[in-house]
Design brief:
CATH topology of the largest domain: 2-enoyl-CoA Hydratase, Chain A, domain 1
Helix content: 40-55%
Number of helices: 10
Strand content: 15-25%
């Protein structure tokens, strides 16, 4: 096995307005060593910076989405508290303004669970499992705090305290996963979902993404007033005129993102 294959890399492919971002370290279950983490940052920086890309799909090569942090790397570096760069996996700057769909094609464990959690939507295969396994290795999962807005408290407690994975179907039942499909259809379904998002007005999509995060942080009542501000740019954009005009003219809208 070459050093490149051992270290792994992250590849961005373009499919119209959608970016397919693939973690390629299958022999190591897409474990997140430094080259993989940096590859993710670079790929998502490219995605965020390209106005022609409107949605991304994140998946892993092989039979595992990601087993999480590279435990060999952790042991070799005697890692204690996780460095700050671990908190910047989906890009190196501010939070992404565009949506990301996780296409979870196998176990999503520890840091792999975090990647799926940090995406905006999630498509999983029937054979997929999700687990926060840090307690089994004496590690921690402070990044799991946003789960409180995704799943019931007792499910979150079970995940954190037992370290035992749950099935894709169970993850769907508790609200962690949007769609469960046959294992061979995961990426295709995620791409279909991403293209349906990319076909919509970019400013409305960006505002919708921010609204969900804002409401989760503030609660629905506190978020109501700033919600009007979030959508102001969409309402006053050229696209807001293009949508009704295209409907009237019985044609697909041509979005400009402005």
């Amino acid at each position: 096995m070459s050093t490149h294959e051992q270290d792994g890399h992250v590849e961005l492919e373009r499919d119209g307005h959608v970016a397919l971002i693939t973690m390629r370290r299958p022999a190591k279950r897409n474990a997140l060593n430094f080259p993989m983490r940096q590859g993710l940052r670079d790929a998502f920086d490219e995605f965020e910076g390209d106005p022609d890309l409107r949605c991304a799909v994140l998946t892993g090569e092989g039979a595992c989405f990601s087993a999480g942090g590279d435990l060999v790397e952790m042991a070799n570096t005697k890692m204690d508290v996780v460095p700050a760069e671990w908190n910047q996996l989906l890009g190196s700057g501010a939070p992404l303004t565009k949506p990301v769909v996780a296409a979870v094609n196998g176990p999503a464990l520890a840091g792999g669970f975090r990647l799926a959690q940090d995406c905006d939507l999630c498509v999983a295969g029937e054979g997929t499992t999700f687990g926060i396994t840090e307690a089994k290795r004496g590690r921690g999962a402070p990044w799991a705090a946003p789960l409180t807005a995704m799943v019931p408290a007792r499910i979150m407690m079970e995940l954190l305290l037992t370290g035992e994975p749950i099935s894709a179907q169970r993850a769907h039942e508790v609200g962690l996963v949007n769609r469960v499909v046959a294992d061979g259809e995961i990426v295709a379904e995620a791409l279909r979902l991403a293209h349906s998002i990319a076909a919509n007005a970019p400013l409305s999509v960006a505002a919708g993404k921010r609204l969900v995060r804002l409401a989760a942080d503030l609660g629905p009542l506190a978020a109501a007033e700033p919600a009007d501000w979030l959508y102001l740019r969409a309402y006053t954009s050229e696209d807001a005129q293009e949508g009704p005009r295209a409907f009237r003219e019985k044609r697909p809208p041509v979005w400009q993102g402005r």
